Amino acid sequence: MAWANGTLGADTGIKWELTPTELTRICKDALDAARAGIAGIEAQGTSPPSFAAGLGAIDGVVADLNEALAAPATLNIIALSKPVRDASDQCQSDAQAFSVAVAADPKIYAIAQAGAAQTQDQEEQQLAKIYLENGRHAGAALEPGARAKVTHLLDEVNDLQIAFQRALSEDKTTIGLSEAEAASVPASLRAAITHDAQGTRIAVNESTARPFLAYVPSTAARKRFLTAYEKRGGLENLRRLTRAVALRRQIAALVGYPNWAAYQLELKMAKTPQRAENLILDLDSRLLPKARSEIAALTALKQADGHAGPLEVWDYSYNEQQLEKTRYSVDSELVRQYLPVAKVVPATLDIYAHLLGVRFEAVKSPMAWAPGVDQYAIYDAASGAPMGWFYLDLYPREGKFQHFEAVPFRSGRVLPDGSYRLPVSGVVGNWAQPEPGKPALLSHEELVTFFHEFGHVMHETLSHTRYASLFGVNVRGDFGEAPSQMLENWMWQPAVLKKVSGRVDTGEPLPDDLIDKMIAAKHVSDGVTWTRQAFFADYDLQLHSRSGPIDPNKLWFDLMPKLRLFHEIPGTYEVASFGHLMGGYDAGYYGYLWSKVYAQDMFSVFAAAGLDNPEIGKRYREDILVPGGSIEPDVLVERFLGRPPSAAPFYEELGLSGH
């Protein structure tokens, strides 16, 4: 790569190295300053002299607070020290309580109403619209007693969510392995094996689950692993979820909605649970026959291998992998040899740089929260203007968030002096640690995930709005995944796969015949994969729309065989580790399917004009990424497409008839 020198150094203005005492003090001071700032604006009355003096100033106070808490409120998922993580949990709880209070404040609601009436500026109107929507949802239009009740309930839900995620991050589940089972663990997982007084054990978490279930031949070991995996979070997390669902129901009723799903979806593209449900059930019904056929093929493969009985849920990944090897000659462990992290990461950045007209510069001495975290500066390729920073924190640590996601640490916005605050974001992931002295290697699935999450980083960087509340991924919740889902398609193109690959011992890219086999096998499990997604989405909506007493675990067990064709493992409670339900995707998991429709439609433009076409990349950057949430998603998409959106490319991608 030939990245020119830039002007940004390592200092983003965010201090990551904080003691618990420092963190607590910074958090308190920032919240006190924010409360004082809001009070000062409200003192001028609910009809400020201008939009800038009213709602614009309020959004500035909120943005100032979020910037001050960029580290204090996010170190809970990434800090090395447990006392720091605990202090950050409390700071996040306090910050979320402040956010609830701002949304529920009737004076701010009135200021937003005044702002909507006094401006014709499109971005200002959108900001007012968002504040009014959030205000209604937080009870700002209710009488004081009901409003106070809603605020109290929302605060309790936020605290339950923080505790739920903390339980997952702190989870240390392991299972024991026999000598033979340990010997069969793939090389990519051997660093996760430990030896103690109990014998040989392996960590059970997000980074180990897929490869263990796909490659360990012992049925008994896979069952033990999956059983333990589906108990992560513990019964206490199950209780937290049950309580949160009940509280959400109360909140919805107080604000005037029939259920939490209706409450949430009014602020999404779908607008109503029924529209989301229609998409889910239509897709599920179309794909269930394919899922049955796929399971039948894997059952036959299992039985031919000398194992009687039906295909159980712990058999699926292993036999799917065997089918790919036997029918398509795709050995995923061989594919790993061509995807060393040292090749994948810079190659991915090169692809994004070319496509979106940016350049990246590695920071030589990162200012980060832990050793091994990489930091990059971002510049516009044409003008050389600095655009922000991002971090890559890609391997697991004790106490760290266990999933894989992009994190927006700081939003971009116009400051009062007219300058622009540069954004900071990052990818927090959990690739399996390599064995000492050996390179880290990725599966193709992990490559796709990384490419997807980096797409979110680009959304968080290339957006350019005046107001932080409209910046980047602050879009309608069921559109937020679409830009990154669209970009996943790049990781299935032969020319692109050659660019990101390089055999660990020779540097040779993926050979053509192996790429052809990978692409041929791409849709081999679409039925099971997408009915699984439909199950998650439908479960989430039903959990948040049913009336009467509800047992989240019983609902899970009841729905799973109807939508997924598998039975759950007795005695488990997978919902206790379903982080989306307690991490902002409640009554919103359907968004992955909803977004995918728009993603494939947008991809059709690139497919027609060329995936490396910088002119289309520039249009995509300007039409989809730059506006952030300042323009409604359906308007953005139609502008980029040059026509109304269509679901046809989505169904065609899955081999189904047009819709």
Features:
659 residues; 25 helices; Glutathione S-transferase Yfyf (Class Pi), Chain A, domain 2; Neurolysin, domain 3; alpha+beta; 5-stranded mixed β-sheet; 10 strands
Notes on the protein architecture:
It contains 25 helices and 10 strands. Among the domains are: 121 residues, Endopeptidase. Chain P, domain 1 (Glutathione S-transferase Yfyf (Class Pi), Chain A, domain 2, Up-down Bundle), CATH 1.20.1050; 56 residues, no CATH class; 242 residues, Orthogonal Bundle (Neurolysin, domain 3), CATH 1.10.1370.40. Strands 4-5-6-10-7 form a 5-stranded mixed sheet, with helices on one face. It has a 3-stranded antiparallel sheet with strand order 1-3-2. Helices cover 54% and strands 7% of the residues. The chain is α+β, with helices and mostly antiparallel strands and 659 residues long.
